[in-house]
Amino acid sequence: MPVYAVVGGQWGDEGKGKVIDMLAGKAHVVIRAQGGDNAGHTIVNPQGKFALHLVPAGIFNPSTLCIIGPGVALNPTALVAELDELHARGVQTGNLRISDRAHLILPYHVLFDSLQEEERGNGGLGTTGRGIGPTYVDKVSRKGIRAGDLLSPERFSSKVAHAAERIAPILGTAGLTLSVDDICSSYLAIADRLRGQIGEVSVAIQDAIDRDETILIEGAQGSLLDLDHGTYPYVTSSSPTVAGLCLGAGIGPRYLSQALGVFKAYSTRVGTGPMPTELDDEVGTFLRQEGHEYGTTTGRPRRCGWFDAVVGRHSAIVNGFDGIVLTRLDILDKLEELKVCVAYELDGVRIHHMPSSVEELDRCVPIYETLPGWSRPVAHVREWDELPLEAQTYVKRLESLMRVPITHVGIGESREDMIVLNADGD
Q1: What domains, with CATH codes, occur in the chain?
Q2: Element (H, E) at 257
Q3: I want to staple 272 with a disulfide (CB 3.0 to 4.6 A). Which of 126, 140, 408, 416 is the partner?
Q4: Tens digit of each residue's pLDDT (9 = 90 or more) over 323-359
């Protein structure tokens, strides 16, 4: 039962898109399991460079069944815009299926997202404002509207009208109104277009499992943004961990054969929240510029810093990774020396774990280990033993700190820019 889960090990933006694209070429089914269009996967393949926000990365292989799973917060308008862009570039999307259980993002969710962030003031969470959080709130409070409701215009219209009546007083205090007719008109028009692709997907998934086909579960965001195990409250509204992916895809954990964690060779974060190894200096600026570290979805500059093995180990434990894909090693080419955070000092005490309290994590002072850089390009390298010894040493040190084998090393944007290691690390 070859079922693979690919999860970000840090705060997102680790290069999962490249890894998923690489694996999707051999997958029969690719499932996007959680999150919404607040996530962005950059794909570089022979067809060009693409930014995917909802559509699974397997879409470039017409024979691969691509599924937007029940755990996804789905904005139909954003999905159609993404499909139109793919079609304009010659990518066919007839292999896409949408779970009728996926919850819909509606215009009032986007309004609530903005209003709530404004209310937080200086304590804002740095959300993307896409309505993801309010959609999951409605889901948990049993007030959500699902993709399957689009298939029944009468049912969908009734639920929207009921929601509008419920939230009218809230919007009224902000001087906002909601048009039920406009929502129903636009969403039901989209429903006509997607009608043949929305439905029950669990049968197709189980059939693939029974046929022993390869299934790839695609995660969005990163494990350190998980509701339970991340830097709460500066987290996303779903569970971007291996367990969360199984739940969001509708695949029992016993079917999972391998869990891969994707880590960038340094640290980045978008938005607010603690980041112990953040660099507000020339090295941080170098990493941002050299790595083009700007959000795929929002374009916001990413905060950059040294690799944090403390949170990396936390992520590895929470997810139970079988292997790690380390990406963007080439971005470090020009640095004469590198630092890795191996522990924290919290209020004068050395600790080796990530505190659950963000207030404590904010007080953590990183304890660094310094390693020599290689000061020469590695983007052309395709074999492990061709990497500079200093680069090999850096990779193996990260592996030992996280106690999970690094199975792949990324040294460029495209799927071919990858060094594959065997179990012995060569």
Answers
A1: 3-100+198-259 (3.40.440.10), 103-194 (1.10.300.10), 264-420 (3.90.170.10)
A2: strand 256-264
A3: 126
A4: 999 999 999 999 999 999 999 999 999 999 999 999 9
